[in-house]
Records
---
Amino acid sequence: MPTPNLRALVGTPKTKIGTFLFEFATPGIGQILKAAGAEFAVLDMEHTGFGFDTVRSVVRYLQAADLPSIVRVPSQSRHHISRALDTGADGVMVPIVSSVAQAKAVLEAAKYWPDGTRGVALGLAHERFAMRSEPLLPRLAEQNARTAIILQIEDPRGAAAADEIAAMPGVDMLWLGHNDLSVALGEPGAFDHPDFAQAEQATIAAAKKHGKSAGRLAVDAKQGAEFARIGYDFVSIAGDVWLLQQAFAAGIETVRRG
């Protein structure tokens, strides 16, 4: 069974719920998340030290569970973006995209001709190692159509350019990097500050206006529900580390009090 198409979920009104993987790159992780009801998982390279050997394995684990995979790459470097997609990831999340020019460079690295200049090597992981004899052009178009491009808005320049960025063909989602945005605004952690609220609202509005998706990471399910209420349609309930800690801490408290 093919993995559900991530791009088909973009811009749809239903809230899509997943989580981040920061630590548990284990063979069962995809099936564990799928059994719990997850609709996507983001494997983080930016803050974990995960390398591409780990990415290759985890993408296979998620594919085995029919769970769409997103790789957050550590930079806007071309080789980070294209290599993540060559592992077979369904989407790539790129940090600190602050301008149309940067967004265009991401698309160039992520998309095959004629939409970009991604280096061509087919019949590998992103094609599920299929032995195919079709002409080259339809296969390039197929990969362009399945690859979701998620750009992180993490500073005031990115928020100001959100409408132009979201309007670009090939950009599928704007993901608010809340911590970095608050720091860039000079108000670390002040998520109720008027400047933060304005930037957030501009990002969500830009995504909705152009039929794209808006995403954000929540600290817990309660906050995730609030994010869905204000317009995010992709919501990550925390990450693997914090989910385990939260559940275990709550269990300890229950036992102690009992």
---
Amino acid sequence: MTLKKFAPWKIQAADKFRLADVSTRLPKDSFASDDSKKSKSLFERLNKLQTTLYAGKSRGLLLVLQGMDTAGKDGVIRHVFTHISPLGVRAHAFAAPSEEEKRHDFLWRIHSQLPGKGEMVIFNRSHYEDVLVPQVRGWLKPPMVEKRLAHIRNFEALLMDEGIAVLKCYLHISKAEQKKRLQARLDDPQKQWKLQASDFEDRKLWPAFMRTYQHTLAATSTREAPWYIIPADDKSERDRFLAELLVATMEDMNLKMPQPTLKPGNFKLV
């Protein structure tokens, strides 16, 4: 599997990128598959790569998941990562900054959650929240927004220099599909706990969020840490797409098992 397969969904020419031009659904038969054998093979490959990452401890991987409410950040984590060993894998969800976090720079709370070598860490929301929401709400003036975007580019370049691969995925959902999913949460007592007043407030600001996402993604998609747009209206397609992208990314990392510390031929079981 190669990353070239994902080029149509990778932000490469920032000046030409238009989020509205990217469909929230995949072309027919492009990634999604109900073939159980192919799915098993895919997740076996993912598990093997994660085991190699954990054993080798020469690289780390940060997976950033961003998207509007109901785009499926929780669902991706639940469905894709259930297939791999929990050793060396963890997820962290970022909410609004606490009072203590507000007393520090906006990246302060991110550092302690980053992966070490041998780890894979999934960010459910991320450092991008401290650029996206303040832009939409008007809490940051444009010059400060641009400074934060520059800090993020430098921050992610630092991670890459230290051997941490950065894979950033925007889960691209349509407004119509979000309406269906919000209604489903309203109707299901088992899902109502997920709802917050801000979900409905943000929906009213949909055009502003789309403009802000477009600007932010384009400004921070670099050769080392690109953004990929994940069509997310169909949940199974979304999960399959991200699993294949993750496998291709890890294969590109050239991961290797460490050399054994002993010679197996010197030992015999009795």
---
Amino acid sequence: MGFLLQICKMLQNRVTQLFDIEVPIVQGGMVWASGWRLASAVSNAGGLGIIGAGSMYPEVLKTHILKCKAATTRPFAVNLPLLYPNAAEHIASIIEHGVPIVFTSAGNPAVWTQKLRDAGITVVHVVSSSKFAAKAQLAGCHAVVAEGFEAGGHNGREETTTLVLVPSVVSAVDIPVIAAGGIATGAQMASMLCLGAEGVQVGSRFVATPEASSHMAFKEAVLASKEGDTKLVLKALTPVRLLKNPFFEAVVASETKGVSTDELAALLGKGRAKKGMLEGDLTNGELEIGQASALISALKPAAEVVYELATDCLSTLNRLNEKYLGQK
């Protein structure tokens, strides 16, 4: 317990203060994985848990918010893709039920940020470029997530890596920057802090937890994945990184042929991600996951993931301090 308290004290910064959390670790709001169980587990462990609203109907989101509030007394957030058809209803539910923090993505933050701020809600926007980070700051966002090309789910078309994106965004804004994309270890977290980020958002690592709502078959596929087993596709629609499977091969074949966006949309259809990640259809489903899946080899509870990230981050920083500065 003493070491844990030391970690919490040493990793305090603007991100921990903004969210009122113990360590600057944010769980990604992933579709079909980030329900109330995962969000509450991460928040209870000292990080910031997020409910991923992108795969939820309004009534479903309400249920998850209420269950999360019952499962934790700590702050938690909702991730909301702004292009989602039910975004307005989700915003109403978020305000009605007193969600303290909202992460917005996939849209213009200027549309809803002021309304959320007026309700006393902390707003963070996910960006894939320094240009969009500056716009998010101008719109009134309290912080931004700089999400690099390595990330799973929706991604930037520019394919800027996290290693390049994070320092670019840090230089472009004054608000806190949270690094995302390809982060699954404490050493990677330490490297992001060295680049100027004040926290990390981790998605794929939390998929491989018992609390994630995704299907066990999908979790096992993530654990079995290696380098090169994911690729960014569907850039003509909405860029997404997929684990390679027969559906992925069909997408690549269609893109190689140069089919129209309408044909790609027809191939994608509806419910493809649900089929793969929630129902466990590894043949016909869409399997969204980041490159960090290659670094994940064991299913661990969310609280253990938070603890390992924080302790390994601090150990890495201490080791570098001793090695290069000769200080203990």
---
Amino acid sequence: MSRFFSDKFASLTPYTPGEQPRDAAYVKLNTNESPFPPSPKAVAAASKEAERLMLYSDPDERALREALAALHGLTPDEFLVTNGSDEALYFAFSAYCDDRHPAVFADITYGFYPVFAALLSLPTRVVPLREDFTVNVDDFCPAGGTVFLANPNAPTGLALSPAEIERILAANPDSVVLVDEAYVDFGAESVLPLIRRRPNLLVVQTFSKSRSMAGARLGFAAGSPELIADLNTIRCSINPYNVNRMTLAAGIGALADEEYTHRNCQTIIKTRTRVLAEMRKMGFWATESVTNFLFVRHPALSGEALYRALRERGILVRHFGTPALNDYNRITVGSDAQMDTLLGAVRSILEEKS
């Protein structure tokens, strides 16, 4: 870093994204991207909107908020559209955490939560997961601050039920509870229907996973109009044109093709079930993931050793390398062909090991 860098950020450890190779030589199962292209309706809408890039995007993002409202049976003023769901998370950390309201999250969860807390110099309360990686709901009842729950959780792939989340909401009536549903479309149940019953609930979702738009950077937050107004105050103090024209159009096109999204999700779920069964036959332990990834370990092979052996064979998976996760790898559920390549490579690695 330069000598001009502010001391307040000197100890900041930024979020580390998964590897993004510049060539197509790898089977890429490390960043939970969809193996399917975006909906043709999303592509067509974005392409058409490219002709108007000389104009700023709509700072009110009205058309996409109306489409989200129609899909979920809510109103446009209960939605905020963001540049990826990470931006919605950043707005929430900024709006609802301070010296009197620490950020509360699990010790094993989405890696951006501690980064945002450190960036904003926020106090935190880190809640340990159980040994089986499940969340102990009682630990959040009450939480003593603003709650950030990835549900399903990453990288574990496990989810709480809406009833369990409602217990947390009821136990924290004077604190915001943010539920990050990036992976909810792959087998979990959304708590969006609770928004009007629980004014302290804020739900965040993304178009990156189930709608195949990771490269577009599009997400949204949903909550009471008052919560959304709070987040808009932060948004408009940073960048009122936070989502570009093509991405907004692509989002509307994707929402107009829910059948396509649902079909792709069902395919990924089917593939996940098949691959999980095959890996368990090979001796792997794995969580009962309800996401588009698997969270696995093998008793005869460290997580790092498996990661490196797969990489040598042209397959990328995610290894985090922290003490709690060193034995584990997170593996994106790709296409059937990609997963067959993975399974073949894993069998070969285990045979060599034995």
